[in-house]
Design goal:
about 210 residues, mainly alpha, UraD-like, about 0% strand, globular
């Protein structure tokens, strides 16, 4: 049984303008996208999320996976190796599929990633500093900055994002490609794990991006 997404993932889009170097990165509208449905308490016959994922038709499984990482081949790889005996096996397979992506496929996934979000009451000077940091990063590497902030307290998000952007600006392109790939892996893993725990639509970190 599938459920239509009533809204996009809880994105990490900030309510602020992007840097001037690249156009805004938005998770595209995909008609028919579905999320892995949480098990409804008291609703007899509703399968647990992993059971639903193992048994649902391939196209539905792939659409659910695209909500975690927008890479069609990544989604096909994971959907094609079902069934998974447990969540740990699926998460391990998700890691391996991410490592298998080509630079072009990583770029495709990055193009759909939102920016890290900031707390709603973040002061304007912080937005200015963060815009400048994002612009410098995108000018150097040609793609959006992504960072998994799983477990980072909200009041530390701004400092963590700025610290990581400034640190990673010192990387050469090959080093940064490796770091970015790993951050995408962590983001996809977190979103998929949240969905399988029945926590609703996967949250983007950097708290997604």
């Amino acid at each position: 049984m599938t459920s239509q997404l009533s809204q996009h993932l809880p994105t990490t889009h900030t309510r602020r303008p992007r840097g001037p170097t690249l156009s805004a990165h938005r998770l595209p509208d995909l008609p028919g996208r579905v999320a892995i449905p949480a098990q409804s308490r008291g609703a007899p016959g509703t399968p647990p999320p992993l059971e639903w994922f193992n048994d649902t038709p391939g196209p539905d499984a792939e659409r659910a996976l695209l909500s975690c990482l927008h890479s069609p081949r990544w989604a096909r790889l994971l959907a094609g190796h079902r069934p998974y005996p447990d969540t740990a096996s699926l998460l391990a397979a998700a890691d391996e599929a991410t490592y298998d992506l080509s630079p072009e496929e990583i770029a495709e996934a990055l193009a759909s990633e939102p920016l890290p979000s900031l707390p709603e009451d973040t002061y304007s000077a912080a937005h200015t500093a963060l815009n400048a940091a994002h612009a410098a990063y995108e000018a150097r590497f040609g793609h959006v900055f992504v960072l998994c902030l799983d477990g980072v307290p909200e009041n530390e998000v701004l400092d963590r994002v700025l610290e990581n952007i400034r640190s990673r600006l010192a990387n050469d392109p090959d080093e940064e490609h490796a770091v970015t790939r790993d951050q995408l892996r962590l983001l996809a893993r977190e979103r998929l794990n949240n969905a399988l725990r029945g926590a609703g639509n996967p949250s983007a970190t950097a708290p997604g991006t």
